[in-house]
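User
Take a look at the entry that follows and flag anything odd:
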Amino acid sequence: MPTLGRPDYVERAVTSVLRQTFSDFELLILDNTPLPSQDSIRRISESDPRIIFVERGNVGVTAARKMGAELSKGRLFALLDSDDYWGPTRLEKHVRAWKDRTVGLSWDRWVEVTQGAFREFPQPFRAGLIEPPKVAVKLYKRNFIHASSGIVSTSFARSLGFPFPSIMSSDWTLFMRAAEYYRSCFIDETLSFKELSAPDRITDTEGQAFFSWEIITVRRWLLVNRPKIYGLDYVRRKALKRLRMATKKNYN
């Protein structure tokens, strides 16, 4: 969990982890809060021995997530944004999904929270196992797995999970790349909560143009490096778009 100030939200996120029914976890807090405000984050991290405080220095979210993967001791690797939180059975449900299965990605249903109001984010798959690369192809078109709702293996996150050090939406590429190689499992239960009311959110400070640039960069890289997975769908969508334009032109 990368953190930068906002101790009230950090405390809520940490509390949601400590209340998990599955207790065999470690929580890495990778902090970049300037002194003396950092003291409050340190105090939160001292509330349980399973919490490990790491002063990450002046590095971005993606570098912090990659650092977390390198430092993690567990078999599974989960992201948690500091202004989000989990339902109490989340880790238990995911660990169950990974047990005795060849799975490389699991994710749960999540909701957006705005001043106490909840809005469920639509999902394109039914609950259960999905063969590769179906989830990856869907993610290429549109990201439907929030950072705090997905889990991959720690070994994958270390080796192949973060190919773009300069982007912020590294959760999107992490989950998409895992779904290229392995089966995915969708847990059709609301277990993750994305907070939209928190101040200083990355999506608010960076702006839409920045994330549009990220999307274009990632998609181009995937088309060049993984054409067998993404190329056919890309060509099909381009052809359909041209067909619609031609049909509209002839109709007019």
The first strand starts at residue 2 and ends at 3. The chain has one domain: 2-247.
